[in-house]
Structure formats: C-alpha cells, structure tokens
Amino acid sequence: MQTLAQIAKALNRSNVEVAGLQSRFDLPVFPGAGYPAPYLAFLRTVVQLRALNVSEEKLRELWNLEKKLLQLLHVDSTGSPTWFLDSCGAAPNPNRRLLLSNYELGVDIEGGGVQLGLDFAEAPPELFTGEVMGEDALRILNDYRHHYAAIRIHVKRELPMTREMITWAKSRMI
After folding, report:
1. How far is Cα 101 from Cα 29, in angstroms, rounded to an integer?
2. pLDDT tens across 121-162, in order?
3. Which tens digits make up the pLDDT trace of 72-88?
4. Do residues 114 and 106 make contact, with C-beta atoms less than 8 angstroms apart?
5. Distance between CA atoms of 16 and 143, rounded to whole angstroms?
6. Where are the domains of the chain?
C-alpha cells in the first residue's frame, strides 16, 4: 500500500497532478497509505499514454467504456472499492486484456465473443433487463474496440517521434 505522495513520486508528477487524474477518472481517494499497487499501475498506464500524446479525453472515453463493460460482465461484484483497478499490473496478455483496467476478457480483444451473464453478486432483480434498457455487453465491447483501435493507431504513429526524442535527450541532455 502506498500514499498519494509515493504514487506521485513514482510517476514523477506532483500531488496536485495525481489528484487531478483521480478526480477526472473518477477514482476513489484513500487516506494515508491506502492505495494498492494496481492503483499505481493504472495511473502509470494513463501517464505513459499521455506521454505518447494520447488525449486525456480519449482515455476517459475508453475508461468509461471499460467500466461499463466490466459492470455488464459483473466484475463489480467483488465488493472491492477498487474492483475496476484490481487487474492492473497483472502479467499482461495484451490481446486478451482491456487497455486501462488490464482486465482479462478471456477472449481476444479483436475477437467476437465474451462470456456473458456471470453474476456473482447478490442484487435485487431489476424491473427491466439491461438489453431492454439498451445496455448490451457486445455493443459496449464494439464501441470499446473502435476507441481502442484509434488509440493504437495514434500510439503507432507517435512511436517514431518518441524514439527520436529519447535518442536526442540521451545525446544532448544526459
């Protein structure tokens, strides 16, 4: 467990910047050393993607789709206040994991299926099903795929310039 100051130091960001990310990504705030390792892993992913010039708006859109998908898949039934972050930092299989939450879908992101209907939570029955209300995991997954593909294309385009910047900084600044 870490403090906000330790997380900020690990990310080479100020406490204010990290607090801003917490607010804009709607992350829980904990007192003292209440931040688990996956919390830092999530923020590190966001900071790294921002360093690759991916807009925060696009990341927040992707994050909201991931959380919605995780809710529809009933991942939120664990009772953990950080249920949407708990997979961050796990050994990645990027083809099967969501980008920001690092949640293992069990199928390739580019594939066509997801195991639906796994509900481990005790919850009162809803008046209408999610599909009737317009919430469909496959629809959300398709939206996610479009956003994810756009971010991947952006990162691929940005990598050559990032490599050049690193080479330049090593030769001129270090």
Report:
1. 17
2. 555 555 545 544 446 888 999 999 999 999 999 999 999 999
3. 888 877 778 888 888 88
4. yes
5. 32
6. 4-172
Name the residue among 54, 48, 57 with its Cα closest to residue 151.
54
Strand partners of residue 35: 2
CA–CA distance, 83 with 72 (Å, rounded to integer): 13
Residue 130 host element (H or E): none
Q: How many residues does the chain have?
A: 174
**37 dihedral zone (left: phi>0; alpha: psi -120 to 50; beta):** alpha
Report the run of H or E that residue 118 belongs to, with start and end.
Answer: none
Given a contact cutoff of 8 angstroms between Cβ atoms, the answer to whether 76 and 125 are in contact is no
Compute CA 122 distance to the chain's CA centroid, rounded to the nearest angstrom.
26
Rounded CA-CA distance 167/101 in Å is: 31
What pairs with residue 2 in β-bridges? 35
For tokens 């270090």, what's the residue?
174
Angle among Cα 4, 166, 174 to the nearest 5 degrees reads 85
Rounded Cα–Cα distance for residues 45 and 152 (Å)? 14
CA distance 26 to 85: 12
